[in-house]
């Protein structure tokens, strides 16, 4: 049986100068594809709110939703490191509740959790790490703060981001997502802190990259941030296939003799 990737494997890979790959997964289908492709980490992201639930942002995603998806991803894979993304409201109210929720992620099969934010979340990150819960940090654009930033933008200076990154590393995060951080600042942070950085729209000099499964495979043509590279145009190909099916059903072309018992 293949060995599941560990935090130590991720650290060693970064220390060897190899890039880390992370992609979101929410279900058995996406998780197995991500695993078969040899990706290092599956992030069960709260982006499930926009990709699968049809929401405009991630704020409405619940703990129940996240545990449901985390359990499926963990159960359907053998090798991926699985990270559960703590949804809005699950770690902001008080530390005890945050701890209970982080524990619930690990009981659902996650190997680690991810939290957004800087100074405000450091005490709870320290507590989680002391309790044996590995934590991934997330700085730059933090989608759960979209009402403060008025959309997808970073409202912190280089020095503030650097200070937050250093404090998160000191608090014990094993890796740090940098979202939409200008490439030069992301490079400086990567050189300054002792844990790997995983960029999304943060240039080529981070220790690794993350993309959302549905975005990189072209499920949603309307979502086109500058950083996104589409590796497949799934939307168009699926649309063409569905139209062809409809035409063949209506034209009596499908099913043929070869599809009949
Ligand atoms: O929820 C998510 O998919 C994320 C990534 C964009 C890092 O947080």
Describe the secondary-structure layout.
Blueprint: H1 7-15, E1 20-24, H2 28-36, E2 41-44, H3 48-51, H4 63-75, E3 81-85, H5 95-107, E4 112-114, H6 122-130, E5 135-140, H7 146-149, H8 158-171, E6 175-179, H9 183-192, E7 197-200, E8 208-211, H10 213-216, H11 234-250
Parallel strand pairs: 1-2, 1-8, 2-3, 3-4, 4-5, 5-6, 6-7, 7-8
The structure holds 3-methyl-2-oxobutanoic acid.
Residues 24, 43, 45-47, 85, 177, 200, 210, 212 line the site of 3-methyl-2-oxobutanoic acid.
What would you note in describing this structure?
With 261 residues, the protein is α/β, with parallel strands linked by helices. It has a single domain (7-216), classed as TIM Barrel (Alpha-Beta Barrel). It is 41% helix and 14% strand. The chain has eleven helices and eight strands. The protein has helices spanning 7-15, 28-36, 48-51, 63-75, 95-107, 122-130, 146-149, 158-171, 183-192, 213-216, 234-250, and strands spanning 20-24, 41-44, 81-85, 112-114, 135-140, 175-179, 197-200, 208-211. Helix 2 (28-36) packs across helix 4 (63-75), helix 5 packs across helix 6 (122-130) and helix 8 (158-171) packs parallel to helix 9 (183-192). The longest helix is centred in the C-terminal third of the chain and has 17 residues, at 234-250. 42% of the residues are buried. Bound molecules: 3-methyl-2-oxobutanoic acid. The site of 3-methyl-2-oxobutanoic acid (KIV) has 10 residues, from loops.
């Amino acid at each position: 049986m293949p060995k599941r990737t560990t935090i130590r494997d991720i650290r060693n890979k970064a220390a060897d100068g190899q890039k880390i790959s992370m992609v979101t997964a929410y279900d058995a289908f996406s998780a197995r594809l991500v695993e078969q492709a040899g990706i290092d980490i599956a992030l069960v992201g709260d982006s499930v709110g926009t990709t699968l639930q049809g929401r405009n942002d991630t704020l409405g995603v619940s703990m129940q939703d996240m545990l449901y998806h985390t359990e499926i991803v963990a159960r359907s894979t053998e090798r991926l490191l699985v990270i559960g993304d703590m949804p809005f409201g699950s770690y902001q109210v008080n530390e005890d509740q945050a701890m209970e929720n982080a524990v619930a992620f690990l009981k659902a099969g996650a190997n680690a959790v991810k939290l957004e934010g800087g100074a405000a979340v450091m005490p709870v990150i320290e507590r989680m790490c002391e309790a044996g819960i590995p934590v991934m940090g997330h700085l730059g654009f933090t989608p759960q703060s979209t009402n403060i930033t008025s959309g997808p933008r970073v409202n912190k200076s280089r020095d503030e981001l650097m200070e937050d990154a250093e404090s998160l590393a000191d608090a014990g995060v094993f890796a740090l997502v940098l979202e939409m951080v200008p490439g030069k600042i992301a490079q400086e942070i990567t050189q300054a802190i002792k844990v790997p950085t995983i960029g999304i729209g943060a240039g080529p000099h981070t220790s690794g990259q993350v993309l959302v499964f549905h975005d990189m495979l072209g499920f949603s043509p309307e979502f086109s941030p500058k950083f996104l590279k589409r590796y497949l145009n799934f939307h168009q190909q699926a649309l063409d296939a569905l139209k062809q099916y409809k035409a063949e059903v209506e034209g009596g072309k499908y099913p043929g003799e070869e599809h009949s018992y």
